[in-house]
Specification:
Blueprint: E1 20-23, H1 39-52, H2 54-75, H3 89-100, E2 108-114, H4 124-138, E3 143-147, E4 164-171, H5 182-198, E5 203-207, H6 220-237, H7 240-265, H8 272-301, H9 307-334, H10 342-363, H11 365-373, H12 380-387, H13 400-414, H14 416-431, E6 439-440, H15 452-463, E7 472-477, H16 484-496, E8 501-509, E9 515-522, H17 529-548, E10 554-556, H18 558-592, H19 596-621, E11 637-638, H20 641-669, H21 676-700, H22 710-740, H23 749-754, H24 763-770, E12 781-791, E13 796-806, E14 810-815, H25 817-827, E15 835-840, E16 843-845, H26 849-853, E17 856-860, H27 866-875, E18 881-885, H28 892-902, E19 908-913
Parallel strand pairs: 1-14, 6-11, 14-19, 17-18, 18-19
Antiparallel strand pairs: 2-4, 2-5, 3-4, 7-9, 7-10, 8-9, 12-13, 12-15, 15-16
Helix pairs in contact: 1-2, 1-9, 1-11, 1-24, 2-7, 2-11, 4-5, 6-7, 6-8, 6-21, 7-8, 7-10, 7-11, 8-9, 8-10, 8-21, 9-10, 9-20, 13-21, 13-22, 14-19, 14-22, 18-19, 18-20, 19-20, 19-22, 20-21, 20-22, 21-22, 27-28
Length: 954
C-alpha cells in the first residue's frame, strides 16, 4: 500500500506548476455518503439569522398568532366527543338506523321523576302533571320528541314500585353531547324544574348522554405547574431573564397549538381531549427544549464567548438534540394512527403539531430573545471579568449540582449489577397492578358524585337498574318477512332468554316495516364486564339468526360502540407496541452508533410504561391515594389511555436517553476510556433533572382539576416521566453502561457505514467551527487536507494523503482507477472520507459538502457530453473547482472547453489519469510538473461511476 503527500510548505503559487500525486491500492466497492444530514450546520445558520433579525422574527411569530386567532374566530368549530369507529358493526348499524329508523338513532337525555313520599307516579295527579309537561318539552327548539313513560309500546319506564318514572327526550338530528349548547341544556333543566313545581313534594332530575360531556377547561391549578417551572429554571439558570425565555417560548407555542386545533375543529371532528393533551405537551416539551439551549448558552457565556456566537452554537448543538428528540415524540404521536381509529389518529397528529411548533420556536424565537438579552444574561462573574479585562477562570470549583451528580453516579455504579437488579425489581413490582387495569369510555357514572348528570345516573341505577344507563339496540332489515311484527316479537322473545338481559323494552318494526328494532336493557351497567359478555352473547345469537333465519341483525347503541372502540384499541396495542419499540431500536442505533444502547433504552422504556400503568391502576381502579388527586371514588380509566401513554412516554423517554447517553458517547468518542459514563452523566445531569422536574410539574398539576378523561392521562404521564427520568435513565442507565464498558458502543463496521448521521449533539457544527481558521487564519487554499483516507469493508483505497492546492492551481493525480476516482469524488464533496481533515474552497467537509457541490464540478472524462458540461460550467461564475477523472480520455472538443476553463481567474483544477504524462497537453505548460511515480496497479472503477451513488455529480 502506498500513499502520497503534497506538503503544505511546497505548495505552488500562481504561475507555478501543480503537484502530481500518485497513489495506488486494490479497489472494491466503496461506501458513498453523499450529503449526510448534518442538522447542526443548518441550525447554526438559522440561529445566527434569527439573532440578527430578531425584531423581524418576533414580528413574524406575533403575526402568526394574530392570523391564527383571526381564523379561529372566523372558522373555528366546536369539539366532537363521539367515540366511534368507521366500519365497526355497531357504527354501521347506527348509520343504518339513522336512515331507516331515524328517531331511534337520535341523541337523548333523561328526566327522572320521583313521586312524593307515600305516593306513586301512576297516581292521577302526578300522571297528569307528567303528561301536561310533554308537549312543553316538544316545543323546545332542539327537541325532536319526548317519550311518555306511559307509552303502551315501551316497557320499563315506570319503576317496579311505581315511585319513579323515566322520560326520554331526544334531540333533533345533528345535535349531540358535543354540540348541544349549555343554554339548550339549561332549557331542559328549567323544564324539569317546572315539572317539579307541578308535583308538590316530588323531585325531577335531568341527565343522560346529552349531559355526560364536560368540555375542557383550565383553572389556576394548572398555572401552578408553570410557576414551579419558572422556579426550577431560575435555580438552574441563575437569571430571571434567562428563566422567563423558555416559559415565553412554550406559552407562544401552546397558544398557537390551541388555535390550530380550534381552527381544525371547524373542518374535521376533533375531541376536546385533544386540546388539553396538546396543551400539556406543548408546555412541557416547550419549556424543556428551550431549557437545554439556554443552559448551553449560559455555560458558553461563562467562558467569555461572544453572545451572538454563543447563541448560534448553543442552538446548533443543544438544538440538534432538540430536533432529534422532538422528532421521536412527533413520530410516536403520529404513530397512534396505527390503531386505525380516526379520533385517536387525529389526537396524535395535532399533539405532534404542538410539539413541532415548540421545536420551531426553540430554533427561531429563542435565539431572537437571546439576541434582545445580549450580554445581560452572561453570568455575573464572567461579565465582571470581561469588564475589568481579566481572564475568565476556566476551571472553577464544581458547583453543588456537579458534586451531587458525581456522588450519585458513583454510588449507583459502584456495584452496577446490584443497582440493575434493584431497579428492575422495584419497577416490576410497580407494574404488577397493571394486570387489573380496567378500561372504559366516559359516561355520567364516572362524573363526580353530586354532578347533576351523575345524580340522574345513580337514581336510574337505584330505581330502575344499572342497565337502563346503557341500553343496547338490535336492528336490521326485515323486508323479506311476511309478518314483520310477528318476526320482531319472536326475535325479542329469544333475546329475553339470553343471560344478562333484564328485559326487552321495545320490539317494533319501523313505519315502512322494512327494519326491526329491539331495545334491550341489560342487568348490568355500561362499565360492567358482564355487559361486555352480554354483547358477545347477543352477537352470537344474531349470527345464529343470520345462518338459520336469513335475518341480518346487528347490535348498536352507546354501550356496544364503546365496547367496539375498546376492543379495537386492545387489538391495536400489540402492533403499536412493536412499532414504538422497533422505532426506538432503529432511532437509537442511528443516534448512538451502537446495538447495545438501543436495546437497553427500549427495555428501560418498557419498564417505565409498565410501572406507569401499575400506578395508574392503583390510583384510579383500586382507589389508592385517590384523595391526593381529588378523585372522589375509584373509576375505570379511558380506553385509549394505554396507547396514548405508550406513544407520548416513548417520545419523552427517548428525549432523556438522548440528552444523557449522547454525552457519555461524546466522552467515549473523544478518547475517555476510563470513566466516560461518569463524566457524561455529570455534564448532563443538572439540565436533565431540571427538565424532568419541569415536565412532571406541568403534567401533575393537570391532575387535581382535570376532567375525567385527561386526569388519568396526566397522572400516567407525570408518573411515567418521573420513573423514566430518575429511575431508568439516571439510575439504571448509568449502571448498565458502567457494567458493559466499551462493549456498550459495539457496532459492526458495515452497519456503521450505512447508517445516516443524525448528529444529535451537534458534532458537525463543532467540527466545522474548529476548522474555520485552519490551517491558519490567512489561508486561501482551493484544497487543503491532512491524513485523508478512504476505505471499503475489506481494503483501503488511499490513506495518509496530505494536499495543499492554492486557488487557481492544478492538481494532477495518478493512480489506480478506483483510488483516483474516490479521491476526486471526495474533493468535490461527493464521497465521505473515512478519516482525515479536509477543506475545499474554504468549506469544511463533510459538513459543508452540500454547499461545495454547488461550486465544484465532477466529471468523468469518458462522458460523451463532457464538452457541453464543461462549457456550461465555464458560463457559471459559481463553479470554481473542476475535477476530471480519466482526464486523458477527454474528447478533443472537451479538451478545448477545459482549456477555456483554465483562463478563468481563480479556477482550480483536479485532473486524474492512470498516466499523468498524457495530461501535459490539457493545461498550460508552466502549470504542469512531470514528477510522476511508477504506474499504478490496474483496477476496475466501475462501481464508482454510478450517478445514483455520486449524487448526480454534475
Amino acid at each position: 500500500m502506498s500513499s502520497v503527500t503534497v506538503p503544505p510548505q511546497r505548495q505552488p503559487g500562481a504561475g507555478q506548476p501543480a503537484w502530481v500525486a500518485r497513489f495506488d491500492t486494490v479497489p472494491y466497492s466503496i461506501q458513498f455518503c453523499i450529503g449526510r444530514p448534518h442538522v447542526s450546520t443548518w441550525i447554526y445558520r438559522l440561529a445566527h439569522a434569527s439573532w440578527r433579525a430578531r425584531r423581524r422574527v418576533v414580528a413574524i411569530w406575533l403575526a402568526i398568532l394574530v392570523a391564527l386567532g383571526g381564523l379561529a374566530l372566523a372558522v373555528g368549530g366546536s369539539f366532537n366527543d363521539e367515540f366511534d369507529i368507521p366500519g365497526a358493526s355497531s357504527k354501521v348499524a347506527l348509520d343504518g338506523l339513522r336512515m331507516t329508523f331515524p328517531e331511534a338513532a337520535l341523541s337523548s337525555a333523561n328526566m327522572v321523576v320521583l313521586a312524593p313520599e307515600g305516593q306513586k307516579v301512576t297516581d292521577p295527579a302526578i300522571k297528569q302533571a307528567i303528561e301536561d309537561e310533554l308537549p312543553k318539552l316538544k316545543e323546545l327548539d332542539w327537541v325532536e320528541m319526548a317519550q311518555s313513560p306511559f307509552f303502551e309500546y315501551v316497557d320499563g319506564l315506570i319503576s317496579d314500585d311505581e315511585t319513579a318514572a323515566l322520560i326520554n327526550v331526544r334531540a333533533k338530528e345533528g345535535l349531540g353531547p358535543s354540540n348541544l349548547s349549555d343554554a339548550q341544556r339549561e332549557m331542559l333543566v328549567e323544564a324539569g324544574a317546572d315539572l317539579q313545581d307541578a308535583i308538590p313534594g316530588g323531585e325531577v332530575h335531568v341527565g343522560g348522554d346529552l349531559f355526560s360531556v364536560s368540555m375542557p377547561h383550565l383553572s389556576a391549578i394548572e398555572a401552578i405547574g408553570v410557576g414551579i417551572a419558572i422556579i426550577v429554571l431560575l435555580v438552574v439558570l441563575g437569571s430571571l431573564r434567562a428563566a422567563l425565555m423558555p416559559v415565553i417560548s412554550a406559552l407562544v407555542g401552546a397558544g398557537a397549538s390551541v388555535l390550530v386545533i380550534v381552527i381544525a375543529a371547524g373542518v374535521i371532528p376533533i375531541m376536546s381531549t385533544t386540546l388539553l393533551l396538546a396543551l400539556m405537551l406543548a408546555l412541557a416539551v416547550g419549556i424543556d427544549y428551550s431549557l437545554f439551549i439556554v443552559s448551553r448558552h449560559r455555560d458558553q457565556l461563562a467562558t467569555g464567548m461572544d453572545a451572538e456566537e454563543s447563541a448560534a452554537r448553543a442552538t446548533a448543538t443543544a438544538g440538534s438534540a432538540v430536533v432529534v428528540a422532538g422528532s421521536t415524540v412527533i413520530v410516536a404521536l403520529v404513530g397512534l394512527s396505527v390503531a386505525g381509529i380516526p379520533f385517536l389518529g387525529i389526537m396524535g397528529v395535532f399533539s405532534a403539531v404542538a410539539v413541532a411548533i415548540e421545536v420551531a420556536l426553540a430554533l427561531t424565537l429563542l435565539p431572537a430573545m437571546l439576541g434582545f438579552a445580549g450580554d445581560r444574561i452572561r453570568p455575573k462573574e464572567a461579565r465582571l471579568a470581561m469588564a475589568e479585562g481579566r481572564s475568565i477562570e476556566q476551571h472553577a470549583k464544581p458547583d453543588a449540582w456537579t458534586r451531587a451528580s458525581r456522588w450519585w453516579v458513583r454510588v449507583i455504579t459502584k456495584v452496577p449489577l446490584l443497582t440493575i437488579l434493584a431497579v428492575i425489581a422495584m419497577l416490576g413490582a410497580l407494574a404488577l397492578p397493571a394486570t387489573q387495569l380496567k378500561l372504559a369510555l366516559p359516561n355520567s357514572g364516572q362524573n363526580p358524585p353530586g354532578a347533576p348528570d351523575r345524580i340522574t345516573f345513580d337514581l336510574i341505577t337505584e330505581r330502575f337498574g344499572a342497565g337502563y344507563n346503557g341500553p343496547l339496540v338490535i336492528t336490521g332489515p326485515i323486508v323479506e318477512s311476511n309478518d314483520p311484527m310477528g318476526l320482531v316479537t319472536e326475535l325479542a322473545g329469544e333475546v329475553e332468554q339470553v343471560p344478562g338481559v333484564k328485559l326487552v323494552a321495545m320490539a317494533v318494526p319501523n313505519p315502512n316495516a322494512d327494519t326491526g328494532l329491539i331495545q334491550v336493557i341489560p342487568t348490568t351497567g355500561p362499565d360492567d364486564p358482564a355487559t361486555n359478555q352480554l354483547v358477545h352473547d347477543l352477537r352470537a345469537l344474531t349470527d345464529t339468526w343470520r345462518a338459520e333465519r336469513g335475518v341480518d341483525m346487528a347490535i348498536t347503541g352507546y354501550t356496544a360502540m364503546a365496547l367496539d372502540v375498546s376492543a379495537q384499541l386492545a387489538g391495536a396495542l400489540l402492533p403499536f407496541s412493536l412499532f414504538v419499540v422497533g422505532l426506538s431500536l432503529v432511532l437509537l442505533t442511528v443516534v448512538f452508533r451502537s446495538l447495545v444502547v438501543p436495546v437497553k433504552a427500549a427495555l428501560g422504556y418498557l419498564l417505565s410504561v409498565g410501572a406507569a400503568f401499575g400506578i395508574t391502576t392503583l390510583v384510579f381502579n383500586l382507589g389508592w391515594f385517590k384523595e391526593v388527586i381529588n378523585l372522589p371514588e375509584a373509576i375505570p380509566v379511558i380506553s385509549f389511555l394505554p396507547i396514548i401513554l405508550m406513544g407520548i412516554l416513548f417520545g419523552l423517554a427517548m428525549d432523556y436517553e438522548i440528552f444523557l447517553t449522547s454525552r457519555m458517547r461524546e466522552e467515549y468518542v473523544h478518547g475517555n476510556r476510563t470513566n466516560p459514563t461518569e463524566e457524561g452523566f455529570v455534564h448532563s445531569a443538572k439540565v436533565v433533572v431540571a427538565a424532568a422536574i419541569i415536565m412532571v410539574s406541568v403534567f401533575a398539576f393537570f391532575v387535581p382539576a382535570g376532567s375525567g378523561v385527561i386526569k388519568p392521562i396526566a397522572l400516567g404521564l407525570a408518573v411515567g416521566v418521573a420513573i423514566d427520568a430518575f429511575l431508568v435513565r439516571m439510575t439504571l442507565g448509568p449502571a448498565v453502561m458502567k457494567m458493559l464498558r466499551s462493549g456498550a458502543w459495539w457496532l459492526p463496521a458495515w452497519l456503521d457505514r450505512r447508517l445516516p448521521a443524525l448528529d444529535a449533539e451537534g458534532e458537525a457544527i463543532t467540527h466545522q467551527l474548529s476548522l474555520a481558521e485552519w490551517p491558519h487564519p490567512d489561508a486561501d487554499h482551493a484544497v487543503y487536507g491532512e491524513g485523508l483516507a478512504a476505505a471499503t469493508e475489506r481494503t483501503t483505497l488511499f490513506s495518509d494523503v496530505d494536499l495543499a492546492l492554492p486557488r487557481g492551481g492544478t492538481l494532477v493525480l495518478e493512480g489506480g482507477a478506483a483510488s483516483r476516482r474516490a479521491l476526486t469524488l471526495a474533493l468535490t464533496g461527493r464521497l465521505a472520507l473515512t478519516s482525515g481533515e479536509l477543506k475545499v474552497l474554504g468549506l469544511v467537509l463533510p459538513q459543508q459538502a452540500g454547499s461545495l457541490r454547488r461550486h465544484a464540478l465532477w466529471l468523468d472524462g469518458s462522458d460523451p457530453d463532457a464538452a457541453r458540461i464543461l462549457a456550461r460550467a465555464s458560463a457559471h461564475d459559481d463553479v470554481t473547482l473542476v475535477a476530471v477523472d480519466d482526464a486523458d480520455r477527454l474528447p478533443a472538443d472537451a479538451r478545448g472547453a477545459l482549456a477555456e476553463l483554465t483562463s478563468h481567474e481563480g479556477m482550480s483544477l483536479v485532473l486524474a489519469a492512470s498516466d499523468a504524462d498524457v495530461l501535459a497537453a490539457l493545461v498550460p505548460a508552466q502549470r504542469v510538473r512531470a514528477d510522476l511515480a511508477a504506474p499504478a496497479v490496474p483496477a476496475d472503477a466501475a462501481e464508482l461511476t454510478d450517478p445514483a451513488l455520486t449524487g448526480g455529480t454534475r
